[in-house]
Structures are given as C-alpha cells and as structure tokens.
Amino acid sequence: PALGPAEKEAVDYLLQYGYLEKPLEGSDFFRPEDIMEALSTFQEASELPVSGQLDGATRVRMRQPRCGLEDPFNQKTLK
Amino acid sequence: YLLLGRWRKKHLTFRILNLPSTLPTHTARAAVHQAFQYWSNVAPLTFREVQAGRADIRLSFHGRKSLYCSKNFDGPGRVLAHADIPELGSVHFDEDELWTEGTYRGVNLRIIAAHELGHALGLGHSRYTQALMAPVYAGYRPYFKLHPDDVAGIQALYGKKSPEIEGEEEEEAELPTVPPVPTQPSPMPDPCSGDLDAMMLGPHGKTYAFKGDYVWTVTESGLGPLFRVSALWEGLPGNLDAAVYSPRTQQIYFFKGDKVWCYMNFRMNRGYPKKLNRVGPSLDAALYWPLNQKVFLFKGSGYWQWDELAPTDFSRYPKPIKGLFTGVPDQPSAAMSWRDGRVDFFKGKHYWRLNRQLQVEKGYPRDIAQNWMHCRSQTSDHTPASGDTPASATGTTVDTISSPMDTTLNTDHFPTDAITD
Fold it and tell me: B46-49 and B57-62 as β-strands: parallel, antiparallel, unpaired?
C-alpha cells in the first residue's frame, strides 16, 4: 500500500538509522509486518510504549535531534 | 553499550580544525577540552592537542556539503554530528546548529562532542536513553556526568584508569604474529588464462586480481606487474578463496579454507587470522555492495549478508544466490562491486555484469581475458595488451613494493567477530 508523507518519513528514518533494511529479494515495497517490527524495535530502544504503530510519541521521538550514526538495535540485541 | 573498535594506543593527539561561529573561541575550545576529559577521567587515556600536522582525532564543523566528508548534514535540527570509528579519527559537527554552552538554548557543544568522541574511541550507541552514548540528544544538563553504561563501555575497551598512567610509556605498536608463508611459490599465472581466485575493488579504487600465489592490479590501460600475495600483504597465503574490501570500515577481508584474514591497507590486524565459524568454510567469492553497505559472502548456490558494524542474525542464511542475483551462475570463483552498485561475477573464463537491480545485463557473460586482462584474443595470443609481464616481477621482493606498505596503523578490533564466533 502507498505510504502517506508521515509514514514515508518514518520509513526513511528507520532505514537511515538501521532499524529497517531494504528488502533485497522481490518487491521494492516493505511488508507491513517488517515496518511494524522496525517500529517496535525503535519504540523499545527509545523506551516508548511498544505498539508497532506510528503513534504521536514515536513521531515526536523521530524528530528529536540526534547523532548521525546508525543504531545497532534489533530484536536480537534488545533481547 | 556496543563496541565498534579501539585504538591500539592510549595516548592520543587531537586537533581542532575549526570552531562554530555561535560561541566565543575560548568557550568552544573549553567545551571540547572538557569533552575529552570526561573520557580520560574514567579510562587510562590521555589526549594532547596539536595545532598543526596530523592528529589522531580531528574535529571540524561543516555544513550541508563538504569536500572532505561524504556524509552531508541537514541544516538545523535532526542530525547534529557524526564520527568515524577507530582508528580513523574524524569527528564532524553540523555548523548550522546553534552550538551553545551553559544554557538550555541550542545544542550543547560539550555534551555532543563527548558523545562523538565516544564513537571516535570505539563506542557505538547505547540503548540507555540517559546514557551519553544514546543516539538521541537528551538536552542540556548543567551537572552532566557519564552514565554507568558509558563508563562500562569505555573501560571494556581501555581498562580502568589507574594512578600510574602519568608515568606510563607510550606502548609500542605490536607487530602481528604471522604464520610462515611457503617460500616456494606456485608458478606465475598467466592473466590471459582467464581463471581467477578472487577479484577486489580495493582501497583508493584499485582493482586487484588474485590467482595462485600472485596478485596484480587491473586498470583501464593495462595490467600492473605480478607480485606475490605475501609480498604485498605480509602473512597472507596464496590460493585465496575470496577477497573483499569494505569502504565502510576500510578493512580488507581475505578468506581461505576456514580462516579469515583482516587487513587495513597492507597491515594485518592483530589477532588474525581467525577461524570462520558462522559462515561456511571454503567460500567461493565475496563482495561489498555499496547500496546497502553490507558484505556478501558466496558459497555454492547460497550467500550470506553480513553487516560489519551491527549484530547479524545468520540463522536466515545462506539464501539462494539466484533469489537475489538474477542470472548469476552458482559457485562463482570471484565477485566484486563498483561504487555505483553494479556487480561483476566471475567464473571460469567468463564474467557476468549485473545492474543496480542485480540483474545480469544484456550481452553477458563475456570473456575475462579480453575484457579485463587486455589480452588480444582468447585463443591465438595470450600476451597482455599492455606488454609482457616484467621479468623483474618474477623475483619480487618486499623492497620492490615498499611504497604501498607505508600506510596507516592497523586496527586492534575484531570486525569479523560476527562471522568468526
């Protein structure tokens, strides 16, 4: 499904900082479950309520000033 | 905390190349000095400022574009700064930010400098949001101090600060222990035979071809002389399985059997070779794909994707080569990528070129000897178009290649931990 501007901005953020990896095989589109998992990882690493949804708190967090290096967080490292 | 690497010495120099216009010079300099001090207070590190010449850590401010940095900044807000991992030493700040000190306005230079120095010293991002090494700037804190996770991270790299540090001698750069290399090399290969062990787009954009005990460079105008592999990379055996250079970390990885060797330029990193445990032994080929900054390792009909700077879950690998690299044969003998994302696979006497969508382009496979090795014809004449291999190359000694050996210090971290353990 086509992403709205806010969703696209969030996906760009998740990609830029290593939460989401561009799918190499098949389609150029991300699967909703991949985006949800990346959002969940970002929320968990940011100590936000983990919903896997692009809620207001997550958007605010993504707009905060930060370091340009990638984050190493994924479900495995968080575990 | 996450560890990305470490310096092989504990007494480091730094140089401030420029300062932000938003702060008085003495205030900005004091902020940077204080940033170093946070780390030297808890670890046996010393930092000495130099005003000219080469320094280990170099701090500078640049804007949206820089001639000297490939990572552009984005104006006020969002990305504030970035830094390289050891032993590279670059620390860059976005000059469009409102850099301040002693106020809640703007962005505190001291705290951000301390964060970026953490990267320059080898720390990755912490998952503790109150840690200095958390990725997001938590704002000005008048009574700022390091988080226990920051302290634990830096001490994991350099140990705890001890009182004897003042009188301690600068440690010598320890030479790597290298296994003996056979003194009788295999016969000098004919580049026009087409067969290759490995290909690599190496540092400074040089293309290296490997066959048997020998390596040579390939350019648009011809071939370089053949050198013994061990003459260029001391301690490296011939008959390699695969070779790949990562511009992301500036490391060169060589694979043979169940071992991996890791070099920065022409010096082997300490602790290598190491055993490959997480990916299969006897790899066929390896390449770095610039579009996702990952290293790909190939064996048989499968591949592994490896992120050098983040934990990689290898449980999903190997995956079938054909599922990603359309039209490529199994068991390639070599592979390499170009900066624009195109990829070449080599097998036997032929090579296949893939576009950025990783599909074989029309007209391939083509002949390696003719199109890469400047050979006039595959069957009638096997003389390199650029001239015969110089006789002097037969008895190559280290002396003949002394200039490329004069390079930077090797690193002391283990970037291959993900695939070796």
Answer: unpaired
Residues in Cβ contact with B90 at an 8 Å cutoff, skipping those fewer than 6 apart? B58, B60, B69, B83, B84, B120
Any catalytic annotation for residue B116? yes
Nearest to B266 by CA among B187, B178, B339: B178
Q: Which tokens sit at B25? A: 């010079």
CA dihedral A17, A20, A24, A29 (to 10 degrees): -120
Partner-chain residue, chosen from B78, B305, B310, that has the shortest CB–CB distance to A72: B310
- To the nearest 10°, the Cα dihedral for B223, B225, B227, B229? -10
**Is the minimum CB–CB distance between A22 and chain B shorter than 8 Å?**
yes
What per-residue string of b and e applies to B331-363 under the rule 16 or more CB within 10 Å gives b? ebbbbbbeeeeebbbbbebbbbbbeeebebeee
Q: Look at B78 and A17 and tell me if their CB atoms are within 8 Å.
A: no
User: B228 or B312, which is more confident?
Assistant: B228
Q: Is B228 helix (H, G, I), strand (E, B) or coil?
A: strand
pLDDT in tens, B368-405: 998 999 887 644 333 333 333 322 233 322 222 233 33
- Closest Cα of chain B to A62: distance in Å? 9
Contact B71 A68 (CB under 8 A): yes
Out of B97, B116, B168, B172, which one is annotated catalytic?
B116
A17 near B CB under 8 A? yes
Name the maximum alpha-carbon separation found in chain A. Answer: 34
Q: State how beta strands B274-275 and B285-289 pair.
A: unpaired
CB-closest option in A47, A69, A74 to B82: A69
**B215 touches B382 (CB < 8 A):** no
What residue has token string 């480091």? B12
Partners of B323 on chain A (C-beta within 8 Å) are: 25
Measured in Å, how far apart are chain B's first and last C-alpha atoms? 19
User: CA B153 to CA B242: how far, in whole Å?
Assistant: 34
| pLDDT tens profile B139-189 | 999 889 999 999 999 999 999 987 654 444 444 344 344 444 445 667 788
Q: Is-contact B244 B343, C-beta < 8 A?
A: no
